Fold each of these.
Amino acid sequence: MRYVRTAPEPVRPAPPRPKRPALRSIVTGGANLLTTAIIVLFAIRTVPHLLSWAVTHGVWSGDGAACREAGACWAFLRAKMPFILFGIYPEAERWRPILVVLILGAATLWSLPRAHWTRATLAFWGFAIVASLLLMAGGRLGLSPVPTSAWGGLPITMLLTIFSLALGFPFGIVLALARRSDMPVYRWTATALIEVMRAMPLVTLLFVASVMAPLLLPAGVTADNLTRALVAFVLSSSAYIAEVVRGGLQGVPPGQRESARALGLGRSTVLLSIILPQAIRKALAPLTSTVVVIIKNSSLVLVVGLFDLLSAGRVSLNDPAWPTPYAETYLVIALIYFVICYGFARYALHLERTTQGGEGRP
Amino acid sequence: MRRRRAARGWGWWLPQVALLLALAGLVLVVARTVSDNMERQDMVLSLGFLRSTAEFPIAESFLAYAPGDTIAWAFVVGLGNSIALTLLIIVLSTMAGVPIALARHSGHMLARTLAGGFVDLVRNVPLVVQLLFWYGVILMAFPPARAAAQPLPGLFLTNRGITVTTVGITGTALPMIVTVLGGLTLTLITAWRGHLHKASLCTLGTIVAGSALWIVLDLGLARDVPHFDRFNFTGGLTLTPEFVAVLWGSVIYASAFAAEIVRGGLDGVPRGQWEASRALGLSKRQSLRLVIVPQALRMIVPPMNSQFITILKNSTLALVVGYPDLNFVANTAINHTGQGLEGVAILMLVFFTLASAISLAMNRLNARVQRGGA
């Protein structure tokens, strides 16, 4: 008697991993108990101090005088928050940076779900960027002009990040392709550019940009601080993006190129519609992590005297009417950065998980 | 990478020649513009300024410096500060990263959650913000010198920094120090070559020779206890708030990244390896030492390479709290002398060399690890 299977055996799920109960892991076993004891002891020593500093002795409202000889001075931050968020932008025009933050924030949130990755979204981004620049700079549509030296706070952070990405992305792709090219001159040039940019600290790069700008520009042409910083940012971000895209390109199986060529497609068609889309899809999750790096890097513009979130916070500490609550101010600024960066980091993780399952699907 | 040898016609040469020409043209245009601008501003390209005296102070340094030394020496002093800071951060953050990674791996719920929260929090806040935060905490929370806090005997916390008791050797200690250093170098070399038995013999020899010389030369120990002296502490070793803030903040930041790299390496070893090595009868410790760690190291070393270069690059952020690293010194020197081009060239050259040195060292380590040697 023979038994021939006609249908495949259904795949049985893996046996469930035994879950260690959370509570038991804390209190069973000598080592675990010791760990718990150390953690609890540390908490007992520190948490009450922190609570008394931040909450019971914290000052939540009032002016500079109320903050002297007290705990955390949250009132300072309440008073200075508009300045930290929007810098020295003229107060009467503050609705403009607020609108910019809202527009750019909305565009970012809208672009997160995969279903929204369409040409319409791209067009919306184009509109958002143009509108933001127009709103910030003014000078048209009856808006009073505001020089870039007066821009500040969150809009600077957002614009720097978006521009480093939007401009760094095409450069990065070109660099990545050149680095994998079979023409040595292109390969060497791209490799040299990428490696030099990656070896250089961004602070040094920013500093070079500000020292060299007067020398590099022809007579009569000047670049403001923001443009100089932006050039440094785009250079460094394109090097990072190039490396990420190169990783994606390496992940595309060589058979893809060969079969597309065998089908009679031209070299550029193969590149643009077969190789690059797959490479970029593979590179999406690490690209999102690059966004976190770029956002964090944007805080470095304080070394060239731009008023981003951090510099504005630092300047607000110079107000003689208040004591100088360094820790509170930097905590709040850290919190703002954390919310943005952590959000992107989680999103990168989500992309990574979902692209793994959907490999190969359009 | 496979490259086809055939079909190297015009389509292969022409674009490259075009790029070369374009690059040469770009260099020419930039050189023209720069020389025009320099001529207009009466600037002369020369490294002579390195020999002139530096009139700016450097607040603290590992190498001796005083205003009046040459600018070249100021650069060296800044470089010394940068290298010392980078090495300290690399060593300390790696040491701190391993236990954090293990905590994230452990079955202890509380430890796991805390370590995870720490890593997420630290990684998602810019380092500059963290450095300024810690600097602010030291300035605010540490008491003034006359009311110094003393958490441990001989360790004083003040808002002018951390002052510690140092222990020095009395007597002519040079022969002993040279012997011990030589022995340690020999030990490291033999260990690196994989002769662990010889290395342990070297260690033993070093200890014996060191102790013998100690007795023969009649050396002693003396403590240098800091004491409060009207305005400030004298004696002992004082670490400035700037240095402490940079070191502490950077170590915290880098240790979170190191922890993630180590965890990635541990996660990368398939669970089957654990189970198989336990099934073969290896003890928990043996399977960790002989099976898991060697495989995890292969995944840890390459990202650690970029991590160390990042630490080197991040050490330049010291300037936001005013710790004089190379970048800071170069900045000051350029502001004083106006020799921007030369200063920037030196700066770029040095950073490129340092980053390459780290890469080289790590690549050699990587080659060993991948080979599975030692």
Amino acid sequence: MAKGIWIFAEHREGKIKKLTYELLSAGRKIAEKTGEEVSALLFGKGISGLVDSLGKYGADKVYLADNEKLAKYTTDFYGKMLSELAKKNQPSVILLGCTVLGRDLAARVAQKLNTGLISDSIGLELNNGQLTFVRPIYAGKAFAKVVCPEARPIMATIRPNVFVPGQPQAGRRAEVVTVPVNLEKSDLRQIIKDVIMRSSTRPELTEAKIIVSGGRGMKGPENFKILEELADVLGAAVGASRAAVDSGWIDHSFQVGQTGKTVAPTLYIACGISGSTMHLAGMSSSKYIVAINNDPDANIFKVADYGIVGDLFEVVPVLTEECKKLLATQ
Amino acid sequence: MKIAVLLKQTFDTEAIISLDSNGQINRQGINLIINPYDEFAIEEALRIKEKHGGEVTIISVGPPEIQDAVFQALAMGADKAVMVTDDALAGTDEYGIALVISKVLGNQEFDLLLSGWRAIDDGSAQVALRVAEILGLPHVNVVTRLEIEEGKATATREIEGGYEVIEVPLPALITAQKGLNEPRYPTMKGIMQARKKPIKKLSLDELGLDTAKIHPKVKTTSYFLPTPKPEGKIIPGGPAEAARELCRLMREEAKVI
């Protein structure tokens, strides 16, 4: 019989990602009701040092696969490892982060295991033993409650910033299960030729707690500098509306909206963004929304918690200075 | 080069979503379009065909209305299409749709499979990857640049904080992300030609599938709409004064900075 809640642990530059702790927190929430064990799957190279923190944050067990072949994520190697482990141990639930890696891995593994996958979940409930996930559809213009009644394991990807990581408990330790790595070169079809990282110290858009975003009102690419200055003071990511991306002022990877990224930060500061249905779809689940726009009738004010009707080129620099002063005195 | 493109029809991006009296998503009066990410896939297929020669086949599964989207893809320049429409498809999930598509592809010869990386309606981003898994194809996901040569695909894909360049042997699945290209509009000539292009229509029976085989693994139990937000606060005063007050509110009231 299927048993155990599994979470797939992601790490970057020798550190467990915050999202992984969020997944552990989601896993514990299910385990509290079902009495099952929570296991973390830790794949990579030179990563055994990360086991401790997984235990502190709620893993009862860590399946550790530490191998040169897993140094970089590839669909084939990671997919084979995860699906074979799951076939052998029959977990009841597998949770992954809704990240580039998590999405890529989850869909293929779900198919390998002939099971369902609930993508992009933003909530879960356990009613009468049935696990129900909440997920946005139409980029957040509506929500669906989804179940996986028969197939096992139940697989889901969970969006960042949804679950709050638990408090780490000193002295809490996970049992370590070392997983044998039987991967052949012939199992691998993806050859990673190059990895180009943007030299930004700002957080990734989908994981950021604060986002400073610009739209048509930015008037040109050079003006994004004033948003970057505010973002750097707040430790925020920079985003953009489709209008700004389509005008060629900023790369599409910064686009927030129905044909861009869906974000849910604690604070979203929209500068010179009118608030099209498409844009609102991507950001309206932000906890607090600030709008700075010189058009008092702009749609964005309908969803904003705080609005300033004014010229962003006058407002934003003062805001940056004020926030800098305030944060310096804390 | 034989290229197959997976096409999904979706609601227009500006569509306002509401629920009908049965609590289902209201489809009345909604404009239907090609999923914008699939348009990038179609455009890329056409460009590869223009460079290397070959044939572009559109594959779409859904209600009879998908014919409009299929026709538009043919008008853009695709050569032919396969449409699977069947009442028994209502309520299918990604698992079932992927099975149907792989049955269609199993009867076709192709070197490259292209698709949008996700659809803007359900956003679940798994059908294409499931198809690749069933057919045993490698894939590169969320691609913004693609080069095809001598039996391999070299694709640049988005990862968090940067890009990765990955090479896979053909046949392979590539899923398209915004930035890959600028999709063309159908020309009048394209629309005229599209009328003569073959569209093969198939039912589940004809594919050798029955409802039991595509029984959904996941089920939606209910839908709901976001709760409207209470009206926000417009901060009065000149730019400097308002900015100072905003800073104070973010700190003391919302406690977000």
